[in-house]
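Minimal example, chain plus flavin-adenine dinucleotide.
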Amino acid sequence: MDVNDSVDAHARDTMLAGAGHNCSDAVRYLTSRAPIAVRWLQQQGVNFDRQGRRLLLGHEGGHRCARIVHAGGDASGLALLQALTDAARHAPHIHWHPPAVLEALLLRGGRVAGVRLLGHSGPHQDIDCAELVLATGGCGALFAATTNPAGADGNGLALAQAAGAALRDMEMLQFHPTALDVPASGRLPLITEALRGAGAILVDDDGQRIMQALHPAGDLAPRDLVARHVWQYRQAGKRVWLDATLLKGDWIQHFPTVAAQCAQHGIDPRQQRIPITPAVHFHMGGIATDLDGRSSLHGLYAVGEVAGNGVHGANRLASNSLLEGVVFGCRLGRRLSYMQLQLPGSGSEQWIDRGVSADTDALMRLRTLSWQSMGPIRSRKNMRAAQLHLLADAGISESWQGRLIERMLRAALKRQHSLGAHYLLND
Ligand SMILES: Cc1cc2nc3c(=O)[nH]c(=O)nc-3n(C[C@H](O)[C@H](O)[C@H](O)COP(=O)(O)OP(=O)(O)OC[C@H]3O[C@@H](n4cnc5c(N)ncnc54)[C@H](O)[C@@H]3O)c2cc1C
């Protein structure tokens, strides 16, 4: 979006953050379509923040220049969601179904042929489908420290797993280095990286900067590196803080979400340092798909965080995921609109569901186990111990959540070396 920036530069940063584990075709497609995606979003009604007539470009970790458009300061996701929901509601070709939860998939003759939905009231409903697109988001809620909402619990992934779809890079989780360090049983508020882009710094208990000596990009070093460094401080019993008190101007106006979340916990970030902790933020792996979102299971497509098309490699470059949703979502939409959609014919039928869900206590135990064993710094010893723990705890091992974490642990143990966000101790 800037004359001094280029598709190549964005692609290089994406590959560098992803430790070269990225699918280069996917990266090329994502980055070359990024300016088109921004313009398309504007046409759908997203008002990106401006400085005069020009779009205001933000700087985030791993990017070597300021290139990120935001909307409503630090509320870009909300702005996108509102504009796209509104546009979709007015699109005559889209049929809106009342809120419902996808419970099961129907396989007929070995391909996806239908879904079972559970509404908030009334009985379940079965719907035939020619092609099914899963866009059920990530799985961070299966970890004790996460920025993800409770619904991002990997349930779509679990369904695809149960139906036999190929999954990939399941161990590849991104850790955000700066979640608000406050007691919480669910998601932790996120302190956006853009705040560091604007000049906030990471400091220890004594107010000393902790990133300067570690990486040339200092506080804006790639997320995994910052997250590991903060994790090590915390493992040593120290706390880490984000100091935004030196920022000039009325920056609160650009970061209303941070300001509101801090205020809820009695912190005034203009006067006080913000306590932070790393937390699971994004899943680079997921249902293995090609660039068109097609999975290994006939009739099943996936897009967004639940999908793994390889674009993020072993670590996602900041802000590439909303872009991914739009770019690959549009590509998939176009593909399906060109296809002659037909309901699947006859064949043997089978309903696939996720299986038993963990109860509240088992889920708490599982979240602790997964965070302690698959956090920013992993050890094979810990992960093997977690596997045994998991198998010995029937409340966890018999649940679909337990099976998903077991799958991640297996993938993490299979990878012999550190790669991107998967950081392995030599033990
Ligand atoms: C706090 C936070 C800040 C972020 N900031 C940024 C950012 O600035 N830039 C960026 O690029 N990315 C950001 N991300 C990441 C980005 O928001 C996600 O990767 C992105 O929203 C994923 O989009 P999605 O459509 O795949 O899934 P989601 O946005 O998670 O949507 C999935 C939807 O599916 C629904 N669902 C799940 N299971 C079922 C089911 N069984 N039946 C029916 N519905 C179901 C969920 O309720 C949800 O509504 C952020 C993430 C978090 C948590």
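Residues 24-43 form the longest helix (20 residues). The mean pLDDT is 94.
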